[in-house]
Amino acid sequence: MKTSKKIGSVEFLFIIFQTQVGVGILSLPATLHSSAGKDGWIAILLAGIGFQGVIFVIYFLSKRFPTLTLYEYAPKIVGRLFGTLISIGYILFAGLTAILVLQLFQISIRTWILPKTPSIIILLLLSISGAYLVSGRVKVLGRFDQFVTVFVVPLIVMILITLRFSDIRYILPIGENGIGPILKATPEGFFSMIGFEMALFVFPYLQQKGKSALISLTISNISVTCFYCFITLATYVFFSPQQFKTIQDPTVYMLKGISFLIVDRIDLLFLSIWTVSVLTSFGSYLYISSEGVKILTKRKEATWSIIITTLLILGLSLFPHSSFTVPTLSKYHAMASYFFVLGIPLLLLVISYIRKKELPDRHQ
Predict the structure, then answer these.
(1) Could you tell me the pTM of the whole model?
(2) Among candidates 143, 139, 135, 144, which has minimal Cα distance to 301?
(3) Are 258 and 187 in contact, with CB atoms under 8 Å apart?
(4) Domains, in order of start, for the chain
């Protein structure tokens, strides 16, 4: 593999970070509150701890095949037939994730910014931007993700400003409802923070595949967990438990009432920056899906697979749907996440040890 296509540990870190941070910023606090009440933020911490176990599985599996992606080493572990089925599964899972990102994005944009803009315009703009980003492959994706991560700082600053109107008594006493509701809400945090599976497809492009890669994954996990926990806690101390029952996107509502001398609508500024995070997350899953199509069809160039995959994802996103479509898709996606984020990598890792399947790392 040419050196020009390689990425460093820092770029790898930001690819994983930006894949995780996406649409969930807006609705996650309300979702967790409906299950665990004011202790919903604890569920995020538990999800972060659980993700560390997922990180070890993904890292050790990728390290056994340092020059191959999951699409390439799955057939070596379980045979061509089952390996192909696993690859198709990941293509569909990544495609479904991309569709959900598009759907949730256009719903939020139409709700808060462009209520009269046709859905096709919103979806088309994000799809074209994502396809253009992915066309640069992993190197460009890593550099772009590294650059735009700086926009997380303004998001944090905006939320910090709202804390002057907060009341910490809204989250006291901590753990009042017991551990049961918290554990029930933990999967919601898990689904909103998925993204580590991206490592299964970019690991071969890493310059250093040793402990630095594991450290990058761990730092990303800690950063995303703290970021989501911070946003959730901020909304919990801003709104009372009664207000949460009628609020769908508490993060935006919280910023909607804040203004400065030269900026009257901070929520619009927040959503503008949030759009960039949605683009990077969408781009990552578009990359996973299109890369699978390229490998299965044995194409050398990725342009064809990117165009086909983007058109399919966009077309399915435009398919007529009711208000129950997105929740239904989210439900099935949540169940599939258990298999594709943890189950299949763990199974492949165990089988690879049993069958003693691995490739030497020539890049160490």
Answers:
(1) 0.91
(2) 135
(3) no
(4) 3-354 (1.20.1740.10)
